[in-house]
Amino acid sequence: MRALLIHNPAAGQREVSRDLQQAADLLAAHGWSVVCRRTAGPGDATALARQAVAEGYDMAVAAGGDGTLSEVANGLVHSDCILGVLPVGTGNVLARNLQIPRWTPTTRSAMQDAARVLVEGQVRTIDLGRVGERYFILHLGVGFDAQVARTVEPARTEASRNLRNVGYVATTVGLAFSQRGSRMTLTIDDLTVRQRALMVLVSNAQNYAGTFRVAPQALLDDGLLDVYVFKGANTVDAIRHIGNVLLGRHVGDPKIEVYQARHLEIRADTTLPVQLDGEPIEHTPLEVRVEPSALRVVVPEGAAGNLFRSVPEAAARN
Fold first, then answer.
1. Residue 299 lies in a domain
2. How far apart are the C-alpha atoms of 131 and 276, rounded to whole Å?
3. 220 with 275, same domain?
4. Which domain holds residue 278?
5. Is 136 helix (H, G, I), strand (E, B) or coil?
6. What is the distance between the alpha carbons of residues 146 and 174, in angstroms, rounded to a whole number?
7. Does residue 97 sit in the same domain as residue 174?
8. Checking DSSP bridges between strand 2-7 and strand 59-64, what pairing results, if any?
9. pLDDT (tens digit per residue) in 9-26
10. DSSP run (H or E) holding 118
11. Which residues contact 260 (CB under 8 A, 6 or more apart)?
């Protein structure tokens, strides 16, 4: 295997250079040829992933958070180059979904364990969501959560990254007290609905913002996106939704409408912010499509079967 390891040094809450070197050494011990590259700013991970495709690498390994993974995925779409994951971010939502080992104070060998997944795991072909020329692995949000991302993300500096989770919590609570629902028109395949909503979440994966299983029925390879419309008009509705999601009680809530779609258009009476895999991108109106079977990714052997519809490819060992 020829692998390009793409490391975002700004990701996560700790220095991981030594851990990454140990992971690269483990891959080399299995006969892999590994080249490491560091990103210097937004867009670099996508450019490096495209380089991996152009130069015939078998795998592009994203060592970063979900934003880095999203960038790498954008460079690998519809190619034979496999996405590998070494989670070193703060949320690591994709790694949580796929049950890839993540570092904690009690699992200090997680980076090497994640590297073993690259060697021993299975390759799955998954869908992506698409907005214009940009793709997302996890989710796209319109409204409330996008406003949180737009408020917090510009503050991502080396000095503040350790406080990022605290910043998200504080910003979420603070903005909840000023939220007002917006009238939205959603065209979901052939169905058009109009609702006053605080947020629309378009999900390709089950987990959201770390451990919260917002879309329990979502599959990564079913050719569909799961659409959650959080209805509401004011602060009370916002706090209710936050509480129910935190407690896992949102499923079946009459103030949440759930759809599945291949194509979705969202228009709002007022311009609303949009986030894609946690990164602020643009505003409404927008058009979202599913891109079926767009990305090959290596996952742990025996990864949760409720994430996939299809059977895995052969293991990516050699």
1. no
2. 9
3. yes
4. 135-292
5. strand
6. 14
7. no
8. parallel
9. 988 778 888 999 999 999
10. helix 110-120
11. 224, 225, 226, 227
Q: Are residues 144 and 252 in the same domain?
A: yes
Distances in Å between the Cα of 309 and the Cα atoms of 192, 224, 290, 299 are 28, 11, 16, 14
Q: Kindly report, residue by residue over 163-206, the tens digit of the pLDDT.
A: 445 455 556 666 666 678 899 999 999 999 999 999 999 999 99
CATH code for the domain in which residue 251 is found: 2.60.200.40
Read off the tokens for 107: 């699992």
Residue 49 sits in the same domain as residue 148? no
How far from 52 is each of 46, 48, 109, 209, 292, CA to CA, in Å? 10, 6, 27, 29, 22
pLDDT, one tens digit per residue, over 67-93 is 999 999 999 999 999 999 999 988 889
CB 118 within 8 A of CB 61: yes
Give pLDDT tens digits for 114-157: 999 999 999 999 999 999 999 999 999 999 889 888 877 655 44
Pairing of strands 134-136, 122-131: antiparallel
Q: Smallest Cα–Cα separation from 267: which of 243, 284, 253, 280?
A: 284
In this structure, what token pair is assigned to residue 46? 């996508």
313 domain-assigned: no
Cis peptide upstream of residue 285 (ω within 30 degrees of 0): yes
Instruction: Quote the tokens at residue 277.
Output: 């895999």
What's the pTM value of the predicted model, to 2 decimals?
A: 0.88
Is the CA virtual torsion 150, 155, 160, 166 positive or negative?
Answer: negative
